[in-house]
Amino acid sequence: MSLLAAAGLVKEFGGLRAIDGLSLSIEAGELVGVIGPNGAGKSTLFNCVTGVVTPDEGTVTYDGTEVTGDPPDALARRGLVRTFQSTRELETMTVRDNVRLAAPDQPGERTVDALLRTESMQTTERAVRTRADELLETFELDHLADEYSGTLSGGQRKLLELARTLMLDPDVLMLDEPFAGVNPTLTGDIAEHIRELNANGMTVVIIEHELETLTELVDRLVVLRQGRVLVDGEPEDVLADDRVIEAYLGGGA
Fold it and tell me: Which residue positions in the chain have pLDDT lower than 70?
């Protein structure tokens, strides 16, 4: 049984069919890239799978349970987490506080625990601080921990987004253009972090336009066209497919 599966998804916006009977399955431990020309339905697929929008038809199944239309926060608590094309950090908070804020189920968010400073709250706070500091060190942001996140470069914001996401301890991580607007050095750093996460057992699905980095990173490449799966296979085979060259790279490639 697949860990994550979309079956027959359809989503229309104002009469425009963004995805059209799309089916895709992801096995536990896979590292999968999703590509396609603009308007192919990549982000809409992610949005339907992660509950940002509800498909008009079809189903989404996660870990053996149908979750079609479940809200993103409920899916995140179950281990299905995604990022967005544009990072969503709170610019007037420090880098450290941005990471800590992402931790789920903090007792300090409840009035009684916050007022009484319960042992449960203090224990959780210590664990959150420790985990956040570990992630900042892992992503080499520890020297920026007390800076406002609004001062970070584009690449550093992508690293911060990854660190925040990992505070949720996901089983499946869906990344929407993690290399967009990032310089080559940080692109390599982000790719290496993704590779390590996958090697440690995390299932990762990536939308990306930066083909060179993506094809070297993933084990499987899925090409979308007009809201459907065009080709699905090993990266070198997919990029050599005439249909992909025509649809994605252009007929003269």
Answer: 105-121, 248-253
